[in-house]
Amino acid sequence: MRKHMLWIAVIASSTLTACSSMGVDPWQRQNLAKPEMALDSSPLNTALDDHIYFSKEASSGGRSFGGGGCGCN
Fold first, then answer.
1. What is the pLDDT of residues 31-50, one digit of tens each?
2. 59 neighbors 69 (Cβ within 8 angstroms)
3. Is there a contact between 71 and 62 (Cβ–Cβ < 8 Å)?
C-alpha cells in the first residue's frame, strides 16, 4: 500500500510540474523576432498567391479550408 501511494505521489507531482515551463522567456524573444522565424517568410508571394486564389475561386480568405467559393462543398 505504501509503494502504491508513493507511485501516486510521483505521478501527481510529475503531472503538476509538466506545464511549469510553458511560454517564452524574455531572453528568448529575440530569437522569435527574427524574420526567418515568421510564419510567413515571404509576404509578397503570399499576397500574390491570395490574389490568384481569390480570382480563381471567387472567394476571399479561407486558404486553409477545402472547397471553393461556389458553396458546393
1. 888 878 877 778 888 888 88
2. yes
3. no
Domain boundaries, the chain: 28-56
What nine digits make up the cell of 8?
501516486
Q: Please state, in angstroms and rounded to a whole number, the distance separating the CA atoms of residues 63 and 49.
A: 10
Name the grid cell of 30: 529575440
Nearest to 46 by CA among 57, 56, 54: 54
Question: Helical H runs in 1-73?
Answer: 2-17, 29-32, 43-57
CB 66 within 8 A of CB 73: yes
pTM over the 0.85 mark: no
CA distances 33 to 25, 29, 38, 43, 47, Å, are: 13, 6, 8, 16, 21
